[in-house]
Amino acid sequence: MSGDWAGGAGGAGGRLLEVRDLHVQIPTRRGTVRAVDGVSLEVAGGEALGLVGESGSGKSMTLRAILGVLPSEAKVTAGQILLDGVDLVPLSSSDLNKIRGPKMSMIFQEPMSALNPVMRVGQQIAEGPRVHLGYSRARAAERALELMRRVGIPDPERRFRAYPHEFSGGMRQRVMIAIALSCDPEFILCDEPTTALDVTIQDQILRLLARLCAESGVSLIFVTHDLPVVAQLCQRVAVMYGGQLVETGDVRDVLLEPRHPYTLGLVRSAPDIEEVRESLVPIPGSPPSLVSPPSGCRFHPRCAFAEEDCTVLPTPLRELAGRPRARSTACLHYERCEDAAGAGRAVP
Amino acid sequence: MSAISMPEPALAAQAEQHAQPRQARRWYRQPALAAGLILLGLIVLAAIAAPLITPYNPIKQNLTASLLSPSAHHWLGTDQTGRDTFARLLYGLRTDLRIAFIAVLLPFCIGVILGSISGYFGGWVDTVLMRLVDIVVAFPFYVLIIALVFVLGPGQRSIYIAITLVGWVSYARIIRGEILVAKRQDYVLAARSGGLSPVRIIGRHLLPNVISQAIIYAMSDIVQDILAIVTLGYFGLGVPPPTPDLGSMINDGQNFLTTHWQLTTFPGLAVVLVGLALSLIGDGLADIIRPGTT
User: Fold this and answer.
1) Which of A103, A234, B99, B293 is the most exposed place for a label (fewest CB within 10 A)?
2) Is the Cβ of A114 closer than 8 Å to some Cβ of chain B?
3) B196 with A96: Cβ contact below 8 A
């Protein structure tokens, strides 16, 4: 099941980030939390992959595992994270430090708390190039100014010496993006970077990210629970539920023709500007416990289509036949989604 | 309120009002801090400029002029060996302040470094260091200092060693606690995600955010150190005579307390003033640089 949906929209060749059967576990007093349970992903050069799911579905943990910055209690218990064929999981933190920054970087949800409050923003942007690229102070400062211009911070010469609290939320997120770009990484992991921003700023930031991706060929893994955001920015999407992937494929395919009842639920519970629906349909129930997840399909207790076999059979991702592009679902009875979606709305 | 029709000067005034909380944090707007700084400045100035203020040599005895009362020549009189009390007071301040400021630096540096390591890395390093801290804290400060200096023998070097051995624990505790909280902040996660080394994360990202707490504590720690130095001098464990020192002056004057009260009172008063100045500075600094108020 690993890596079985390669060859997405990117296809530019070259750089490749591969996650194979990743397991992350957190021991707690109530038992072991299986935060990530067998996730496999692939991102090729220049591609933007959306990782969607509810809070606590393991999206952020997956990102942090890729970058090797899991909370101290959490451990990668199985699986591989391959960057250009090199497994990152067994690397020491000092070896990882040569990758974090120049090859991969991260953008966080809260731009205020992710910036050091007592350090000038220019210096925070210049720090990466100084450490990783061996730039002199002057050259790193120049690089920071160039980045600030690139991410659209007005008057960078003056703003260079400002502190984070002197910036608005959107400007802070631009600073974060500048920091993430500072060492020319190949992959940027975004952990809900627009969630804390209001909608107009969110749109600006998304456009900026899309432009930067197109300009520099950087790949994104974009974690969010916001489907429209994924539709705007990403070519492919992976849907996570209870620490596992339940559906993957091209964004249009997945969002317009969901083949997993959970994705269908997500789509139906999001408002749509083009089509006025009578009411949004929430998904009943609540996310599963990751200490003792339901047997069989983890979604079955909340699923309208669940059958007897859903409660017992394992549900790995399976490729869908007859699709132009790699598309897979974990649902045993995905045909029912087809019927439900067909009844619910017109498929273009 | 009609914000739209607000004329420009009014807008400017409003902007100025917004800027005011920051202005108020300037040092000269903090009465406690300003008073402390001025007082300490005067004391330090007097100690440094001692040779210019008084013509007398603080260690030169003049047995024909012993135990004189205050006069125009000897502002605070003379002691039993005819040394000018005012001169000894100024030079004594010089000695004690110098020792105190140096003695606060070593425990500050050692405590901050060990506290950072303990708080950031945790694990067995933290356990070992904190048990060590517990052991030192279990003894009363002055008792431990006096015992250590007693073992090491009187003198400046012993004072530095004793204060360092005992003093670092408070800094280590403060910094460890602050780092434990600060390292959970997103900016530390961001710094780790940026591939920065632990040394750089601690030095450039964590310490600038938490060091103010140690600086505030250092102000009250100097007071404690000065008291320790004076106490040691009083017990004859401090700077060996004839170097002037406030503690030994208080002790020497004690024998003449009923007839020549100024011999003991003024050195004691000097200690109180130094302590007051440093406490005021510590309070004022705490108000200004306490994190979360900027």
Assistant:
1) B293
2) yes
3) no
